[in-house]
Amino acid sequence: MLFSSMTFIFMFLPIFSTVYFLARKELQNYVLLIASIIFYAWGEPRYLAIMILTILVNYIGANYINRSHNPTHRKLLLITTVAVNLSFLFYFKYFNFVINNINELFKTHIDFINIVMPIGISFYTFQALSYVVDVYRKDVPVQKDIYQLALYITLFPQLVAGPIVRYHDVAEQISNRNVTFDKVAYGVKRFIIGLSKKMLLANTLGSIADKIFSQPVEYFDTLTAWIGAIAYTLQLYYDFSGYSDMAIGLGYILGFKFLENFNYPYISKSITEFWRRWHISLSTWFKEYLYIPLGGNRVSKKRNIFNLLIVFLATGIWHGASWNFIFWGLWHGIFIIFEKISGWHKKEGNIKIVLTQHIYTIFVFVLGWVMFRADNMIYAYEYIKNMFGLISKHQIAYSLAYYIDNIEILAFSIAILCTMPIFKKILEIKSKHKILYSIVNIWLIVLFILSASSIAASTYNPFIYFRF
C-alpha cells in the first residue's frame, strides 16, 4: 500500500486512526500491530511469512544472547542470528545477481530462480539487526514481549522505505508514549508536506528524467543530458525525503518521534557533509554497526581508508543487486577518502572557496546519481560522456520541448529553490502568530487538495526506494 494512494489516505488511515484513538491505551499497540500487518500484506500477502520468520529469528536469538553469560557463546549466537537475517536478504535480493556474475565469469549456465523481492526487506532486516546487536551490546534490555518486538519490526509508517529506526531510539516509545494535540497537528502537517513533495515535485520531475534516460545517449544533446541528470537528482530527493516526511508525520500522529532522515543535503560543501545530511538513518546505521566495529578512525590511516571503502561498498550493495550501485557506493567512498586525506571538507575561507566546494560537491553527487539511475554502467558511462560533450551524436530525436514543458519548468524551479532551507521553520510557527499561522494552514490545505487531485489523475506513482 502506498502512502500516496486514495486507498491509504481516504480508507486505511481514517479507519485505523478511529480505531486506534478510541482503543484503550493498553490496547493501542495491538491495534497498531494488526494495522501494520494489514498494511504490509495488502500488496504482498505471500511475503508476510518472511517478515514473521524474521521476527521469530530475532526474538529467539536475542533471548538466547541475553540468557548466556559466556562471551564466546554470546558472540556465536550473535553471528548466527545476523547470518540468518542476512541469508534472507541475500536470497531475495542478491542470489540471481551472484548467479549471473558466476555465469559471466566462468561461462557456466546455472539457472536463475524466479524470485520477487519482498517490499521493504532491506529496511526491516536492518531494523531487526539493530535490535539483536543492541541486546548483545547490552545497550537495551531484551524485549520479552514478542508482540512489542513484532510492532517494532512491522511498524507501518516506516516499514517499506524507512527511515531505518534503530531499536534503542524507540524502545521506550513502544512501551510508553503520549499522544497530544500538538503532536497530531504537527504530524498531519508534516505528512502533507511529504505528500506534496512526492506528488507535485518528485512525480513531475520523474517524468522528465524517465523520458530522457529511456533514450539512447546519442539521441539527445549535452544540455538535455544535464537536464535529465538534474531532474533525477531532484526527483530522488523529493521522492525519498517526501516518504520520510510522511513516515515521520505519521509517527508523530501515533505518539512516536522518529529521527530526521534528511537535512537539506544538496547545500553540502563536501561529500562528507553530504552523507551527514542524506539518508541519515542509513549512514548512522552503517556508522554504528559496521564502521565503528571495524575500528572506525581509531586505527592506522591505511586501515581507516579500508574501513571507509568497506562501508561505502556495503552502502552500494545495500541499495541493490547491480554493478551500478556498487560503483556508485565506491564513487562516494573515494571522494570521502580524498576529503579525509586532503582536509577539503574542513577548509574555510571566502565566498570563492565556499562556492568552489559547493560546485565540486554538486558535480560529484549529480554524476553519482547518473550511475544510480542508469540501467547499467555502460549506459551510465556513455551518458556522463554526453554530459561533457564527449560522444558523437546521431540525429537528435526530439527537441528540448519534448522533454520539458512549462509546468515542468515551474516544478523544476520550485524544486531547486526548496533544496535550500528557506522554509525550514515554517511548520514551527505557533498559533499566537495568527496571520502567519493562518497563511501556513491555508497553504497546506491547498497543497493537500492539489496532491489528492494529482493522485486521482496520475498513473505514475512509484516510490523509488521501495525496490531497495
Written account of the structure:
With 468 residues, this protein is mainly α. It folds into two domains: 173 residues, no CATH class; 285 residues, no CATH class. Helix content is 69%, strand content 0%. It contains 18 helices and no strands. α3 packs across α6, α4 runs antiparallel to α5 and α8 packs across α18. The model has no long low-confidence stretch (mean pLDDT 90).
- Helix run count: 18
Q: Which structural class matches the secondary elements?
A: mainly alpha
Q: State the end-to-end CA separation.
A: 16 Å
Question: What Rg, in angstroms, do the CA atoms define?
Answer: 23 Å
Order of helices and strands: HHHHHHHHHHHHHHHHHH
Tally of domains: 2
Task: Indicate the proportion of strand residues.
Answer: under 5%
Give the overall pLDDT as a whole number.
90
Main β sheet profile: none
